[in-house]
Amino acid sequence: MPLIDSDDVLEPLGDGGGATVVVGMSGGVDSSVAALLLKRAGYRVVGLFMKNWEDDDQGEYCSSRQDLVDAASAADVIGIDLEVVNFSAEYKERVFAGFLREYEAGRTPNPDVLCNSEIKFRAFLDHAVGLGAQRIATGHYAQVREFLGRFQLLKAEDGGKDQSYFLYRLNQGQLSRTLFPIGHLLKRQVRAIAREAGLANHGKRDSTGICFIGERPFREFLARYLPRRPGEIRTLDGDRVVGRHEGLMYYTLGQREGLGIGGVRGAAEEPWYVAGKDMARDVLLVVQGRDHPALMRERLVAGDLSWVAGGVPADRPHVHWVYAAKTRYRQPDAACEIERIDGESCEVAFAEPQWAVTPGQSVVLYESRVCLGGGIIS
Fold it and tell me: Domain boundary residue among 288, 317, 337?
């Protein structure tokens, strides 16, 4: 007996009617099941494996060869063609160059956000349209719906896997052509479907690490592209040296692990946390205690704004805390107000202080389950 009723699985996709959809297949279980469900729903499905990193393609941390094998195996079981395309030049220019610039400036970027907007839903979409596709699809945990003539980006049903945070820069043109076939499913349901269909990757663990680059020793990797600049670790007031750091680019606000601060005479036994960076002097600033006031923020300013609907959210002057925000992935929604939007930037105020709001990361705004958009925390 199937673990999931097929009617429940296929209903959100409707009847494909033979329309062509190109599915980004990474070799993982999510994108494989996305392709499988589309095929069952009556779409003409073509798989596309994207190769976007070549600098150390033969290195021990490169998983792209095995991922391609897994994608090809899944495509064979599903009964679809698989094409391989190389977007490494686009990735370096549109994503990785900005990634390095942000780290060099002392901020902590999120490459997955740019990777989605510039590669998975731009270069990939353009290529798919060139193949004659009407739609593209991915294995992201998110949902799209048309509402009053506009396309909305919605959270996934599986709150623990929801990836709308990484997709907030998608625009109307991209969403109108995109399907998220597994957005209405829980992760355990996706694995069950894969297992029942005989997909060998049904138990494959989720990928982590830098988008398309994967898991590797972060400091060693970054040092290949940016020079190390060691310096002092000082208390927030700057009065006391408590250690040495290997380079400001390796640390992020709120970080506790890897500081190497031993017992400091006269200091409390509480753990140390990164509270800031003095870029001019190459000094890492730290405080003790996770709840230190320096780690808490009641408001933030964000720039480089992107709104899913194409315009700014509605002004709600008489309704307090109507919006919610995430300042990092997997963070619980935080009630907030959008106090100012001037086109170039916005100011967000929180109902409760937020911990370790980090420059370079994205703040993503929601109204209930609808992702409105967001910007880069400055």
Answer: 288
